[in-house]
Amino acid sequence: MPEPVTIILNGERRPVAAGSSVAAALLTMGVAARRSVSGEERSAVCGMGICEECRVMVDGRAGVRGCLVTCRDGMEVRTNG
Ligand code: FES
């Protein structure tokens, strides 16, 4: 089994399984990707880049679909981005 990688999630170091998408990592941790305009927590639905419910900020880039990005060591992820 490969060594986990560490992402920085909302400023906190979090180990995740190597090869995980950002969306899968968030689901595994029970962390919502974002909030809707009415304040409801939203997370990945389709897992293939269609629904956009998994949008987060990755390394300062907003609106990234987390299901399409693989976690790598030192990656900075911010929810609600
Ligand atoms: S989970 Fe649907 S676009 Fe990412």
Would you kindly provide a written description of the structure presented here, covering whatever features stand out?
This protein has one domain: Beta-grasp domain (Ubiquitin-like (UB roll), Roll), CATH 3.10.20. It is globular and about 40 Å long. With 81 residues, the chain is mainly beta. The model has no long low-confidence stretch (mean pLDDT 96). It has 1 helix and 7 strands, in the order ββαβββββ.
List the topology elements.
Blueprint: E1 5-9, E2 12-16, H1 22-29, E3 34-35, E4 41-42, E5 55-58, E6 61-65, E7 76-78
Parallel strand pairs: 1-7
Antiparallel strand pairs: 1-2, 3-4, 5-6, 5-7
Bound molecules: FE2/S2 (inorganic) cluster.
FE2/S2 (inorganic) cluster binds at residues 23, 44-47, 49-54, 65, 67.
What is the gist of this entry?
The chain is mainly β and 81 residues long. The chain has one helix at residues 22-29, and strands at 5-9, 12-16, 34-35, 41-42, 55-58, 61-65, 76-78. Helix content is 10%, strand content 32%.
Q: Please state the second-level CATH architecture.
A: Roll
The multimeric state of the shown protein is: single chain
Low-confidence stretches: none
H and E string: EEHEEEEE
Straight-line N-to-C gap? 31 Å
How many distinct folded domains? Answer: 1
Major sheet: order of its strands?
2-1-7-5-6
Radius of gyration from the alpha-carbon trace, in angstroms:
12 Å
CATH class: Alpha Beta
Percent helix among the residues?
A: under 10%
Mean pLDDT: 96
The CATH superfamily name is Beta-grasp domain
CATH topology: Ubiquitin-like (UB roll)
How many helices in DSSP terms? Answer: 1
List bound small molecules: FE2/S2 (inorganic) cluster
> Main β-sheet: number of strands, strand sense, barrel status?
5 strands, mixed
